[in-house]
Amino acid sequence: MVSILEITLLTGSVQHSATFCLITWVVARRGLTYPSMFNSLALIVTVVLESVLLGSDVSVGSLLGAFMIIVGLYAFLWGKGKEIQRQQQVPATTDVDRSKITDATSNGEGRTSRIDL
Predict the structure, then answer these.
(1) Which of 10, 87, 101, 115 is 20 to 30 Å from the Cα of 47, by its Cα?
(2) Strand partners, 101
């Protein structure tokens, strides 16, 4: 017969492995700040599951904390979205052919000198 300790160790190791794989994937796709921002959602899940499964009361402080976590996460994602939009717009507006430079004395006509970068 399997003991509760063995089940706990098995589920803990599986959960830890899944979390490690998920965090590694997110870091590779989006960078280091995303996993740390989403770790705070575990507190909200803990409060909800504790209330549902164990029947404990949810305090006003827990609700206020959960609200603040959600607002902070939304602000972070909104700011990151704006930052990504700006990064995508910058290369399109500053695309300059740097292989040719026009001589200033020729008024933009005629002589061009080639510079290899």
Answers:
(1) 10
(2) 113
